[in-house]
Specification:
This protein is of the alpha/beta class. It has ten helices and nine strands. The protein is globular and about 95 Å long. The relative contact order is 0.15. Bound molecules: S-adenosylmethionine (SAM). Keywords: Methyltransferase, Transferase.
């Protein structure tokens, strides 16, 4: 298969979900999927200022560069992120990533690592790699594999550190990154030649399997409100749609994009979709509340208005009458091997030429 065909294959829209004709109630065990989620601790090497958390309306927020990110970082949000980690994995048959990185990958960066669940699992799978997770919040566990470390930093400021990486990973960052082209360019600059950037993210709004339901879906309304709120404060909840363009502009090649539909709730056919649906149900049930303050701040809506939208959306999730799904993009791209190699010959040529001139002048001076 040619590279072009492969690329085409990866660009295909997600396979539509088929509705299961059987019962799709969430049942009594809807919460059991999160019962084994581990609790997270703290990373002791970090400066205490990072622990100066902010509190509002019963939720806890990051302290470092306070206000930069609008979703909470408390236990409830950490549980949601760990649950969502499994959703990402299940939807690509258990894989942590799709990029064809070599088994002997050396240096890896996880951007906006959250609880560090991806970072730690990657470090376990690749014991010879040095794996760094960076986040605004020091919410990662204290006991981690020896090849895994965490750092508190704002990835939207200049990456002044010298490290370069073979693999950079970023997941679920649509509510976080305001300058995607800037992030992608920094990732390019900090990748070793031949290294990969992988981004995995949802793209809003949430879809209705029956397009006619869009007119009556409150979840769809919520998605539209999120898009509008994002625009006002510089967040693009449709960013994955533009990744290809930004990756190309930065100089990446071999861009692969795979779109997947996550059913919300167990309404879709096939066992895998049912497991996925139960997990996404729990994820979205909590996520819409976590995102409430963002909507209130950006659109000047009242707490009551947003709460009504949240309650209506939750009722819609529970009812499972409208078959909702979320589009998700898995994308990876490679930094070319020869960006430096192409420049090196011209540098050598210029130097050689200068030396030749200097030698000639020196020879003239001695005659
Ligand atoms: C939705 S969570 C995703 C966490 C993790 N990537 C995952 O998939 O489980 C977004 C994370 O990005 C972090 N974040 C947001 N803005 C950031 C920034 N400017 N610099 C570093 N981390 C940031 C948040 O603290 C949060 O942990």
């Amino acid at each position: 298969m040619s590279a072009r065909e492969t690329e085409h294959e990866h660009n295909r829209p997600a396979t539509p979900l088929e509705t299961d004709s059987g019962p799709s109630s969430l049942g009594d065990d809807a919460d059991s999927a999160i019962s084994d989620i581990k609790s997270t601790g703290r990373t002791e090497s970090l400066a205490s200022s990072a622990y100066a958390y902010q509190f509002k309306d019963g939720r806890r927020y990051h302290g470092y560069d306070a206000g930069v990110y609008m979703l909470p970082n408390d236990e409830a949000e950490q549980d949601r992120l760990d649950l969502q980690h499994h959703v990402f994995r299940i939807s690509v048959d258990g894989k942590l990533f799709l990029a064809p990185i070599p088994k002997d990958v050396q240096s890896v960066l996880d951007v906006g690592c959250g609880t560090g669940i991806w970072t730690i699992e990657f470090a376990d799978d690749y014991p010879n790699a040095s794996v760094l997770g960076v986040d605004l919040s020091p919410i990662q566990p204290a006991y981690v594999p020896v090849n895994c470390s965490f750092r508190v930093d704002n990835v939207e400021t200049d990456w002044v550190h010298e490290e370069t990486y073979d693999f950079i990973h970023s997941r679920a960052m649509v509510a976080a990154l305001k300058d995607w082209p800037g992030f992608i360019q920094q990732a390019f600059d900090h990748l070793n030649p031949g290294g990969y950037l992988e981004m995995q993210d949802v793209s809003f709004p949430t879809g209705c399997n029956n397009p006619e339901d869009e007119a009556i879906s409150r979840v769809r309304d919520y998605g539209d409100v999120m898009l509008e709120a994002g625009k006002r404060i510089g967040l693009d909840f449709e960013a994955p749609e533009k990744w290809r363009e930004w990756l190309e502009a930065a100089g990446f090649v071999d861009i692969h994009m795979k779109w997947v539909n996550w059913p919300i709730g167990p309404w879709a056919k096939h066992q895998k979709n049912k497991i996925l649906g139960r997990f996404t149900y729990l994820d979205f049930y909590d996520a819409i509340e976590a995102a409430g303050p963002l909507v209130i701040a950006a659109l000047g809506k009242t707490q009551e208005e947003v709460q009504t939208l949240i309650d209506d959306s939750r009722a819609e999730f529970k009812a499972q009458k409208i078959r909702l799904y979320q589009r998700v993009c898995f994308c990876y791209a490679r930094k070319p091997e020869n960006t430096q190699e192409e420049e090196v010959p011209s540098v050598i040529d210029v130097e050689a030429e200068n030396k030749q001139i200097a030698d000639l002048e020196a020879a003239k001076a001695t005659t």
